[in-house]
Design goal:
It contains three helices and five strands. The protein has about 140 residues and is of the alpha+beta class. It folds into two domains: about 80 residues; about 60 residues, OB fold (Dihydrolipoamide Acetyltransferase, E2P) (Beta Barrel), CATH 2.40.50.
């Protein structure tokens, strides 16, 4: 019984550390645009990126796999099944987490003063190259 308590404690501490460290990532720098500015859309590009692995998938998989493995057999066989389940679950959880992607859209603009800027947004934009737009702090408005 002592081995099961220490195994559970180890999995719990690993899960706690992974979930705490997972929130430490920072996103891209954002600069606000002062006042509305007129611009022409130069390009719209879809950007697909792999999500950065946080380790949470591996930890969750290891916990689930270890828990399922502990249900098999008894004595030394149970210990082997628990370890194998934890290793297999951790591997699977990591693979699942690392296969996730995010899609964003990069809109390149040429402002009326000749300067260029890029806006990245998560929603598919309704603008196309050549469109005239008004850019504010939190939106792009198509000018008709």
């Amino acid at each position: 019984m002592r081995a099961n308590k220490s195994t559970f404690l180890m999995f719990f501490l690993i899960a706690l550390a992974a979930s705490t460290l997972g929130g430490c990532a920072t996103g891209p720098e954002t600069r606000l645009i002062a006042g509305p500015r007129m611009a022409t859309v130069m390009s719209v590009r879809e950007v697909v990126e792999n999500k950065q692995s946080t380790g949470v998938g591996m930890v969750a998989g290891a916990i689930a796999g270890g828990a399922l493995g502990s249900l098999i057999g008894g004595g030394r066989g149970r210990t082997v099944a628990t370890v194998a389940g934890a290793v297999g679950g951790g591997y699977l959880g990591n693979r699942i987490e690392s296969n996730q992607t995010t899609v964003s859209y990069e809109i390149t603009l040429r402002f009326n003063d000749g300067s260029y800027g890029t806006i990245i947004q998560n929603q598919q934009p309704y603008v196309r190259p050549g469109d005239r737009v008004r850019v504010t702090e939190n939106s792009i408005e198509l000018i008709r």
